[in-house]
Every structure is written in structure tokens, then in C-alpha cells.
TrEMBL record:
PROSITE patterns noted in UniProt: PROKAR_LIPOPROTEIN
Key words of the record: Signal
Protein name, as recorded: Lipoprotein
Superkingdom, taxonomy of origin: Bacteria
Keyword Signal assigned: yes
Amino acid sequence: MNKKKIFLILLILSSVSILSACRIVFDPTAQNAKQKEIQKEHRQTVKVQEQEEVKTEEPEEEPAFKINAFLELDGENMVLTGDTDLPFESYIDISLKIYPGNATIEQIESGEVKPFNEVPPNIVGIGTSVLEDGTLETKTYKRPETSTRYRFELVFEPESQEEEIKQQMIEQAGDLDELAGIQVLKEADPENSMVHGDKPVKGYIKSAEVMKADEPNGDQVTLELH
């Protein structure tokens, strides 16, 4: 065997040895373990972020005055009961608003659809007042059609109360415009408002969705106003 052939054989053997030493070993078990560890770290990061978001959410402000109200549905009759820590003889208004006939229950419950019209007080009835023991005067209201969906609202406006009642509220909770949990019920409308002038109407509002009589929450049930 000549020198060239010997050299070629040695070169080939050396190359094979080098490649064998440098080969990459693929270990599926190690890869899976690493992937699981990455996924675990990701889940932990997401969980921490969710916890931080919950912590940073502003808690709902407790209203200065509580109103607990319930509406019992019995055919055309809607019986209002409840209690409150509002002053004796405070007046609380009510309204019954009609939902569009083509609105679905899901749209109503999600707030996607709003009532478009209000039933006149001479049909549904007028508001209620606070009795001496703190309960609401029990009132029975009428819904014109049991085949229509409504929103029943209970509305308390501090500024519309008698002066004596307003003074009691101020002594108990402070400025009526700054009461805890108070909402803007109507924006300022100086052209059309003879009572409130250019001030927005503020107050507390509670409501319940009254469904058709043959639907859940439509009849023979007591709804809590929120």
C-alpha cells in the first residue's frame, strides 16, 4: 500500500472520530421537562399579574344611605317592600320603563339595550315614602302588559326633599352634592329645568328587570333591586 492510500485512510478515520465526538444528542425527556418549566413560569407570571390587577381595582363606594328594596311580581301586580336608613318621611320616586319588543333577555341583562319609554304615573302608580320604623311604605304597582319587559326603578333625589329632611341628611352625612355613592341622574339642562336650574340632578337609584310573565323573573317571583 503506497503512502497516499495510507494517508487517505488515516484522514478518513480522523474525520469520523471528530464527527462522533461532536455529535448532538437529542433527549426528548430533557426537552419536555424544559418546556414544562417554561410553561409553569409563564402561568405563575400570569397569576401574579391577575392578583395585582385585582388589588389595584377601586372598591365600590358604600352609599351614605342604604335602600333595601324588593319587588314581588304577581300577574299585573308588582308589590314593593323594603327598608332604609333615610330620614322618616323621605319620598322615593318610582318609574316603570319599557324595553323594545325586539330586545333579547341577553341584551337587557348585559345593558346593551336601554328602555326607550316610560309608563305614565297614572297607570303604574306613584312613589313611596319612609315610615317611622325605617321601612318603605308597601305599595302595589301595575304593569300594563305581562307580555312586555320592563325596568322598574326606585329613585331618591336628596335635593327634592323637604327642608327638614335635607337638614337631617346634611347633619348625618354632609353636603348633599357630595354624598358617598351618589350618582348623576340627569345632566344639567338650564333651558328646561325650572326646579334644578343649571345643576345636574343627583341621587340614588335602584332597579330590577321585569321580564315577561312566561319567562324567568317575570311572575310569581320576588326581585331584589340593585
